[in-house]
Specification:
heterodimer; A: about 350 residues; alpha/beta; nine-stranded mixed β-sheet; B: about 90 residues; alpha+beta; two-stranded antiparallel ribbon; 3 helices
Amino acid sequence: MTAELRPYTLVAELTYRCPLRCAYCSNPVDWARHPAHLDTATWLRVFAEAEALGVVQVHLTGGEPLLRPDLETLVAGARDRDLYVQLVTSGVPLARPRLVALRAAGLDAVQLSFQDVRPGPADQLAGLRAHARKRTVAAWVKELGLPLTVNVVLHRGNIDTVGDVVAFAETLGADRLELANAQYLGWALPNRDALLPTREQLDAARAVALAARERLRGTMEIVLVVPDYWTDLPKPCMGGWGRRTIVVTPDGLALPCHAAHTLPGLRFGRVTEHRLAELWTDSPGFNAFRGEAWMAEPCRSCVHRTRDFGGCRCQAYHLAGDAAATDPACALAPAHGAVVAARAASGRPAPAWRHREARP
Amino acid sequence: MIDHASRPRIAAKARLRFDRRTDGYLLVAPERGLVLNRSASEILRLCTGDHTVAAIVAQLAAAHADAASRIEADVVTLLRALVARGLVEIAP
């Protein structure tokens, strides 16, 4: 069954620790209960094993990957395997000499997060005065000739500023702009009622983003991710479970997505105990939702099943209580009512955020 | 835009990467990887910023039986698409 499957991307979550406390953080809400960290040698082996499996891209992420003192070694090791190495960072703990060193080690690209274009709301959401620092880091990235992706998570409180976000990214000289509505998992699920935009907000933002995409074609790539809560169609989450991507958590679990270990009853192995190829091919968790045999109706006989793969398993579990259910984002899902009910909250005053915990 | 005298090169953010699993080439960039067919690989390997479009077409025409006009059309179509995606740029 897995003969045709090839992972192209390795998401290396080097640590869950982070100086920011974003209310939509995609790390698991119990991140502080996973304090173990893989050592340098294990990560270097994982990179080699991933490349042998077919991986061509590695995203060094977290948490905040810059908190790893061995990051330069990890970048060099990944680049030695001819992997395309992207650092996904808040930028906060970075000093210019370190970025110079990372570039010298072979870093290919930087993805920098901004919470908002307005310093006040940005710092409020991050729980830290970080915005000015990030602007400085963005300038260093461009000075050093590295490609810059600006990532802004969209939500009800900032989605009306999409036009300003585009202008801000142009000012920074970004090569790529990700305008990504939060996926309502991790910390974004308990904060969903504060984060989900209204349909009117979404439609307006989409019009602005699509016009900017046309205007900037060939200069700055613009990617817009809309909330599946408003589309009635599930996303092909991760390009399908266990089809394209391997996530390795800070403590060494190999997963098909960064939240898969929040699903009860699935067994995933650790890279400290098994080769990555074994985990990719044989781990029961990876195989649980490959193919179509696990699907129930309405997915099983649906024409969209080869495109959306039934949607997001984590959303199915967290909203419908069953990881094998049709993603409730789908209008045909038995549990679609949970999504419809959540939409109503977008029209009410936003409740206070629950910030991500600061430390274990 | 692209004409005979343009010198295309792979953009700084992208990398042409040999894929030992398929014996082909991939064009890898942030959050993106394109699996290249053989003809696209041959074209992109010449996109170093040193060769003009005319020179690239001439080199490929010397190696293949296809008519130069057909090769030129293929080269220009591919380069236009990749320039629009920011993966190829025209050297100044």
